[in-house]
Design a protein that fits this description.
Largest sheet: 5 strands, parallel
Order of helices and strands: EHEHHEHEHHEH
Radius of gyration: 15 Å
Helix content: 40-55%
Strand content: 15-25%
Shape: globular
Structural class: alpha/beta
Distance between the termini: 11 Å
C-alpha cells in the first residue's frame, strides 16, 4: 500500500479543519492543522488584512513538510488552504507519499457567513476575495460540496480512499 497525504484544501471558511479532523478520526489517521504552522509574522500580516505571497508561505510550507515527514503512518490528513500551485507543488514533493487534494467547494456567501461566525481566528473576512482569486485547484482534486453534512463528506472521502 502506498503511503498517502490527503490535503483538505480550500479558502477560509470552507470547513477544512472540521472535515480533516472528522476524516482523520474515521480512518484512524493523524491530522495536521496547517494554520498551526504559520509563523507569527504571517498571522500578523493576515490579521492586518494583508494577503500572503508565495514568498511569505515558504517558511509555513517548510514547517508543514517537516511535520509530515515525522509521521510514519500510511495515511496523514492535512487541513491546508493550498490555494496556489506553488504551495501544492511543494506539498506534493513529500517523499514516499502519494498526495490527494480534496477541494471543499462553497459559495462565497457561505464562506463569508462562516468566517463572521468564528471566534478567535486570525483570518478576517476582508481577505476572502483574495483567497478566492488565488485559488487554483489541481485538476486531479476531488471536489466536494462543503455545504453537505460533515458525515456525508467523510463518508464520500472514506470511500474514495478505499480505491
Amino acid at each position: 500500500m502506498t503511503a498517502r497525504l490527503v490535503i483538505i484544501m480550500g479558502p477560509s471558511g470552507c470547513g477544512k479543519s472540521r472535515i480533516a479532523g472528522a476524516l482523520a478520526e474515521a480512518v484512524a489517521a493523524p491530522m495536521l492543522e496547517g494554520d498551526d504552522f504559520h509563523p507569527p509574522e504571517n498571522r500578523a500580516k493576515m490579521m492586518a488584512g494583508e494577503a500572503l505571497t508565495d514568498g511569505d508561505r515558504a517558511t509555513w510550507i517548510d514547517a508543514m513538510l517537516a511535520a509530515i515527514a515525522q509521521h510514519k503512518e500510511p495515511l496523514v490528513v492535512l487541513a491546508c488552504s493550498a490555494l496556489t500551485r506553488y504551495v501544492q507543488d511543494r506539498l506534493q514533493a513529500v517523499p514516499n507519499r502519494e498526495t490527494l487534494f480534496v477541494l471543499l467547494d462553497a459559495p462565497r456567501k457561505t464562506l463569508a457567513a462562516r468566517m463572521r461566525n468564528r471566534e478567535d481566528h486570525f483570518m478576517p473576512v476582508s481577505l476572502l476575495d483574495s483567497q478566492l482569486d488565488a485559488l487554483d485547484a489541481p485538476d486531479s482534486a476531488i471536489r466536494v460540496d462543503a455545504e453537505q453534512p460533515v458525515s456525508a463528506i467523510v463518508q464520500q472521502l472514506s470511500a474514495a480512499l478505499e480505491h
